[in-house]
Amino acid sequence: MHRFKLSLAAFAILVAGSALRADVKLPGFFNDHMVLQRDIPIPVWGWAEPNETVTVQIDNQTAKTTTADANGRWRVALQPLPAGGPHTLNVSGANKLSVRDVLIGEVWLCSGQSNMEWTVNSSLNAAAEIAAADFPMIRHIKVAKKTSGFPLDDLSAPWQICSPATAGGFTAAGYFMARHLHRKLGVPIGLINSSWGGTRIEPWTPPLGFASVPALKDIELQVARTQPENKLYRDGIDKHLAATERWLAEARTALAAGQPAPISPGFPDELKPLTSHQSPTTLYNAMIHPLVGYGMRGAIWYQGESNHSEGMLYNEKKKALIAGWRKLWGLGNFPFYYVQIAPFTYGGEDPRVLARFWEAQAASEKEIPNTGMVVISDVGNVNDIHPKNKQEVGRRLALLAMAKDYGRPDIEFSGPKFESLSKEAGRLRVRFSHAKGLKSRDGKALDSFELIGENASFVKADAEIDGETVLLSAPGVTEPAAMRFAWHKLAEPNLANAAGLPASAFRAGEIPKYDFLALKVAESADYELVYDLDLLKLKDSIRYEIDRSKEIPGGFDRIAYFVELTVPGEDLRYAYASMDAFTDDLSKIAVPTVAAGSKFQMLVNNLTIISNDKQLKNGSGLPGNIEFWSHNYNSTNGDKVPGASDSLYDFGDTPSDPVNGYGCMQVHSTSAKQTVFAINNWRAANKADLGIGNSTDRTRDWTFTGNAGSHATARLRVLVRLKK
Length: 724
Fold this sequence. Notes:
It is a single chain. By secondary structure, the chain is of the alpha+beta class. The chain contains 12 helices and 35 strands. Strand 11, helix 9 (313-329) and strand 12 (336-339) form a beta-alpha-beta unit. 42% of the residues are buried.
């Protein structure tokens, strides 16, 4: 009896021990119908009991055996296999797993935002495409949308065989690329679709990607502060703990004295885990990191709409993304092909914003090894951010892969690319690569070319194909200096090559430093320059580059101001305002510092406005008013300036103490209720307010905008017309 009881106890211990033993496990995307990359060592990994022996084998090939580490992780690399299948992948340890119907072929990671997530169901001719989607050697997985502040080890996603029953849910750009490759190569194609509509590039980027790009130091630090292994995080936690311990002591003391306890310190926001799908690294952590190391040929990327206002900064972010993925994957500089986003309205923004973004996308192809860009300006829809012709998007991605990765250098994979610019008599010659058979794709005259010359403004260019070059000229321009192409968010240019592939937006040449005052303001020839000031050097004590106030002889009857502002990446904006003299003292017509003693809230007569700001109304003989003072001021319309607001800072504000206060130098077009220009708070240097035309939000006169530091150039000239 006792022997029987002991046997039962031993059996119970044995059962309990086997229950604690971890089963061998594969990642959640290693499942039936998967596609493994051909011709490279095949990585297989997973988890098991620490120190457990794990054996991995494909069919009857030589098995690989390894031992799980102290954390239960294991990994092997099987011998490369040629394209084919189906195969069975067997993994055994304490238990046995079999993954069936495994194909060996070409694997591509498909990532980005909504235009990559866009499905065959929603594409052009969807019903016919789905009905014809009988390609069992094309397989697809869709990674579920998820975020994480820290790298995850695993994700689950089933592999689907391409058929009319499944293809509608595939990434359209990826599927149409895969279909083209499959038809040309005759091998299985695997698509790993990890995409999320509306997302920026930063969430897809790993921390070491940001660390590799100096221009993104601020994002690197933002991420580092949330990582427990980082010193910035540990220092922040130590500081918070010390503050909390002080609070605990103070709270206990207060309670003991019958006093209310102080408010406890809150957990620092900068140390909180990143969780938003728009925060840096969160999508990489959850939707890319578990895939890292999986054998693949390369990646395709369709993203940018959510970053399209960033100009060349996007190129830096693309460097971080690609460098991070490549370093972590360990496959060297694997192919990375991407889609240039299509023309689109993007509301009322400056139409050149998108052109500068296209320029940044094109720069990535030049600066990052083994990358390629497809241009789709001819198959977009300016009224739909999701062009439905994903067939052509996929085909052009496939052309890149065929030419660069699959031994077909004879295939043309790119539209005409700018190569060089030269000047000839009265015209510019633009040379292109990928220029065999240059043509107009619609048979009409070439469009979207502009040039700039002695008129100091870009004008439409007449463009003529001459071999593998294009000649540009324009009526009235005898000295062209620079050009640009497709420099507008709605541009759908018609320049293409014999393969029918379109040219991308670009600009070339050097725009001379024109004197817009002399070129655009004829009456300025009758005026004398008194002051010239670099507005990027503002400070409490104004130092003019030119000060001729002591040299000007005789009296004057008109005063004029010319302000020029440039924001990086944008064209220069200028505003000229001249008016009947409102003082006979030259020391009081420039920046109204305390030393100058200027204080004017007054109407001025015969205001002339000349500006290239599209919102500012030009004209002459206009009613106007000026607000010049060194004081603080409020929005109350104390002087009852006609039409001015009592609640908005505009053209009817009221100065107040102290005299050495915020400061205001503004010229206004009173009847139009417009600020011609404003220079405020000059004592704040790069936080001063600079503007032409009306500002928006809580002011109309640029008060509180603090934007001086955002300008590349800023200049003020003050002139007078001498009495005859």
